[in-house]
Amino acid sequence: MTIDELSYEPKGDKKNSDFFNEYRIKIYERRKSAGLEELLGNMLGIVVQVEHGDAQAYLRELHLLGPYRFESLFQSKTHRIYMLRSQDAYPRLIVMEPLAADYCDEVTLLNRLYPLAAKKPNARYVGEIFKTADTQQTREILESHNIRFNYHHETRNPLYTESGVVFTFPSDYTCNRIGYCQHDIDDYESLNFGQQIDPDAKDVEQWEAIAEFSKQTRLDPLVLGVDHLATRILAGEREDAILEFLTMSHYYFWGAYNISEMNSSTNVNRNGHVDDDKLSPAKVFTANNTPSFVNSFDNLPMPTEDFVRNYGRRLHHMAYEVVDGDHRGGEKNVDYVVNTLRDKGVAFLAHVVGECLDDPNLKQIFSKHSEFSILITEYVERCHGYEGFFTKSNVASLTEAAGQDERYQHGHVFD
Fold this sequence. Notes:
The protein has 13 helices and 19 strands. By secondary structure, the protein is α+β, with helices and mostly antiparallel strands.
């Protein structure tokens, strides 16, 4: 099923400006006329960077929390690059680890601007890689639309400028990048990520042991691929961030909802060319309804804005879909997954929210931030064919729980 974005009416109760509505359509029209719609395909990869020395532990965490399994390891001039695979059709997960403890590039400098990000200055979600039929043509079109790409003199990491993927400059609104690749994501020679090397046998043994645990406890068939990727941004940049992403992709604006209890909105963008979002995960942007300096008059909750002030504009969480169904004794699958992971020491921010009774609904939960990637892992189970990404009450509860965990103490003020 393909969505006609020009005639599609976005869902939700979040009102957008005339500017947004006008340029949303203009962007769709320009993508078509410029040929981007025909060039671009599904999401091929998701890229995360961790600190030097954290990759092995982060891969153990990834093997436990989700369906990704180690596939290959490469070494470039500056990084070790780990390729992980889930099910064949789903995006790969790419983890970068600097070779040196004192490695510094634009990611490092950006993280050091924010008090809670500075503790792990190289740990950051980098961005997504999309399939394209022609990398150079895609770049030329987007550069004519004022999208900036990285050049050699602007960054140390050869992945951004010397590999088979071309990456944009970090967004001014989200600090995420987008990469474009015309090659088969499993054609390592064409990807040119570096020299392929063997990981330490002890690390492989640990990853395999965790994978075996997932099989034995039946986590494997229950936790599927990535459902959506959620970025937190500043209140005044919500519309710009969405329009920029629409310019750089062939996604469409699905809709936006106010979460009044948390003084924020949730804004969803989807790939209208797939029937399963896990083939090309949705991109979600969350922003405060009022900026912090105005909110000081009313003192409304603002965990979303506080997150950005404390960590910077960045990806907040990555959500996995859980198979709908009852595990045993009426226990929903997501409850079983969470309870099994809790027994293995995984910390969660709150209880599972939402009910799955006789009507379509969904149950969701956030883990605590990863010590290594600073990302939260979400689990979501859609019950009885529920088609949305959230309910307002669920999002309010999850946002509140995350806000309590993301506070920063400075002077006599708690964010």
